[in-house]
Amino acid sequence: MEDGLSIKQLSHTYGAKQALDNVAFDVRPGQFCALLGPNGAGKSTLFSRLTRLINGPPAQIMIAGADLHRAPRQALARMGIVFQQPTLDLDLTVRQNLLYFAALQGISGKVAHTRIEAALERLAMAHRAGEKVRALNGGHRRRTEIARALLHKPQVLLLDEATVGLDAATRRDITAHMHDLCQTDNIAVLWATHLTDEIAPQDQVVVLHGGKVMANDTATAICGAETLEDRFLAMTGTAQ
Amino acid sequence: MNAYLTSLMAVVTREALRFIQQRERFVAALVRPLVWLIVFAAGFRAALGLSITPPYQTYITYEVYIVPGLCGMIMLFNGMQSSLSLVYDREMGSMRLLLTSPMPRWWLLFSKLLGSTAISILQVYVFLLIAGLYGLINGIGMPAWGYVAVFPALVVCGVMLGALGLFLSSFIKQLENFAGVMNFVIFPMFFLSSALYPLWKMAENAPFLAKICAANPFTHAVELIRFSLYLRWDGMTALWSVLAAVVFVGLAVWGYDPARGSKGKGR
Questions:
Q1: Chain B residue closest to A110 (CA)?
Q2: pLDDT score for B265
Q3: Domain A1-78+155-240 in CATH: superfamily?
């Protein structure tokens, strides 16, 4: 697979604990892939490996055709990331935060400003550009982070439980926006979550449990006659 | 602009903005050495007789002696302050943003180091200006060219202590553990150096401690500042300071190597 995200033979251990066990799956461009797993399933470890925050045993991770191990800089340049933990500087304005990120990607001057205005416009955040992040609510902070992750036009977008702590309406808006975005911009989106209501029937779903991929198919194919939530609880052994 | 320069400017500007927003930090960084210079030194002037010691060519007062040590103190505290802010960055998540940038990690660490060194140097110059004015009132002062000659020495010391801070921050897991850095790094490094007393004075009373002082890289940093301020060159202090800076930079890069993350650091 040339574009999108491709993971093969990805394992990771913390001492004796096997956090990831031979994880392998692909996400095509334009595909919204939900990485579904309960707490402790290995989602955050997978994200840390994909973003190169930690290294581990050899694995083949391709980001839009760039090998993360052999060409980490090219791979990271093609990837947008929204971490579970907020990563905005609260004392800087929305625009200053975005300018800082753009510069870390090597984008400056007029290009940076044009892209920032476009990204904020798209996330309906243009009117808040001059405000300090501290003054924004959780939903607006998340939108700012998503706008920021899109500044360098990534081909693969990783979001680690991006809706955690948000109210239902904001969660729905952001989830819907991400579904639109992956179609219109042909981006491969990997969306880690443990909430089944964020997943549309046509979405690709990778169920991760105990560090292993338990299922990898469309949501419709995985749930069959059951609801996705019931199927997920049954697969992960957390059903009541 | 080149991508390297763009990211360098961004990291340095962010450090500067953060520093400007924390005015208390600037005031505290200045008040601390000034209290030592004006109060502590006045009290100890009578107790500590100083003979003619290079680079000084005449008898000097204790205030004159401790000025270079207090410059080192500013840089030491600033280096540790940067370390603290890096641990804070990691707890707040903004460190992830930096580490997942496509720019090489060593370059980003270097940019961070340069930002913290620039802030250190700015603080030292403000202190030196005030110390110079205080010295003029007392009829003693440093040579005017000393202010220029000390610049490279301040760069070396700033990089050395900033890199030490970076290295330490890669090991400190939580902000709460930072008190340990104060007790086990800042205080021993400062008091076991030539910042407050010349080594020969220490050797008279505690020869073993004097040996530790002589091996302490901070001693060499302070001596490099002292010699530069008085337009004198001491090759050994320069060599040891540069060597310590290189070693600490190497350790900082190693400390932030992602491969180390596989040995138990989950998130």
A1: B1
A2: 41
A3: P-loop containing nucleotide triphosphate hydrolases (3.40.50.300)
Structure confidence by residue, pLDDT tens digits, A207-216: 999 999 999 9
Q: Please check whether residue A101 touches B, CB under 8 A.
A: yes
The neighbouring-strand residues paired with A14 are: A17
Task: Say which of A55, A92, A105 has its CB closest to residue B102.
Answer: A105
- Contact state of A100 with B10 under an 8 Å Cβ cutoff: yes
By the 10 Å C-beta count (0-12 exposed, 13-18 middle, 19+ buried), A152 is classed as buried
Residue A195, pLDDT > 70, answer: yes
Q: What residues does each domain of chain A span?
A: 1-78+155-240, 88-153
Q: Which chain A residues touch B4 with a CB distance below 8 Å?
A: 106
C-beta separation of B71 from B122 below 8 A: no
pLDDT of residue B93: 74
Tokens found for residue B189: 């490094």
DSSP state of A159: E
Amino acid A189: pLDDT: 95
- Range scoring the smallest mean pLDDT among A148-162, B86-100, B142-156, B237-251: B86-100
Are residues B14 and A87, on separate chains, in Cβ contact within 8 Å?
Answer: no
Q: Provide the shortest C-alpha distance from residue A223 to chain B (in Å).
A: 32
Is 0.90 exceeded by the ipTM? Answer: no
Name B71's Cβ contacts closer than 8 Å, sequence gap at least 6: B33, B124, B127, B128, B150, B154, B157, B222, B225
Query: Domain spanning A88-153: which superfamily?
Result: ABC transporter ATPase  like domain (1.20.1580.10)
Q: How confident is the model at residue B1 (pLDDT cuts 50, 70, 90)?
A: low
